[in-house]
Design a protein that fits this description.
It is a single chain. This protein is α+β, with helices and mostly antiparallel strands and 140 residues long. It has 2 domains: 2-72, no CATH class; 80-139, no CATH class. It is built from 4 helices and 4 strands; from the N terminus they run βββαβααα. The chain has helices spanning 34-53, 80-102, 108-113, 117-139, and strands at 2-12, 15-20, 30-31, 66-72. Strands 1, 2, 3 and 4 form a 4-stranded antiparallel sheet that branches. The chain is elongated, with a radius of gyration of 22 Å. 6% of the residues are buried.
Length: 140
């Protein structure tokens, strides 16, 4: 599951490293879209700047000390719809690779080719593979 986290550059025992910026309840600032993360980062920086201007912080916050990082979180349960979405995304990605390598300007032929029987067969194979990966992940 793709998410976007707001992270901050923080000094630690080994120098500087990136860590999750946290909300007041110590949960990571994590969002479904990059736009949401960017809005939160602007708000976060504004609040830090206000704190600095009011003497509550020793150093002025530096926007370069923050970043938005795309992360993938392991989902614990998957619905039939989730598995169908993953299979559809996998087929689209495979077609995209073929089209890019062959210089195909659009996906019209792929859309026509993967209809009916061919689509059902590929979809069944991908769904089976996805369920196997889910089961293998649960056993680890």
């Amino acid at each position: 599951m793709k998410k976007y986290e707001v992270q901050t550059l923080t000094s630690g025992s080994g120098g500087f490293d990136w860590f999750n910026a946290l909300r007041e309840d110590d949960q990571p600032l994590r969002f479904d879209t990059q736009a949401e993360a960017e809005d939160e980062l602007k708000f976060h920086l504004s609040a830090l700047k206000d704190a600095w201007e009011n003497g509550l912080m020793e150093e002025e916050p530096n926007p370069d000390d923050f970043r938005i990082e795309q992360v993938y979180l392991k989902q614990t349960t998957y619905t039939v719809g989730d598995i169908a979405d993953i299979a559809d995304e996998a087929l689209n990605a495979a077609c995209r690779v073929v089209q890019e390598r062959l210089g195909v300007p659009n996906g019209d032929l792929a859309a026509h080719y993967f209809q009916g029987h061919a689509e059902r067969v590929i979809d069944d194979i991908l769904r089976g593979y996805i369920r196997t990966e889910i089961q293998a992940g649960e056993e680890q």
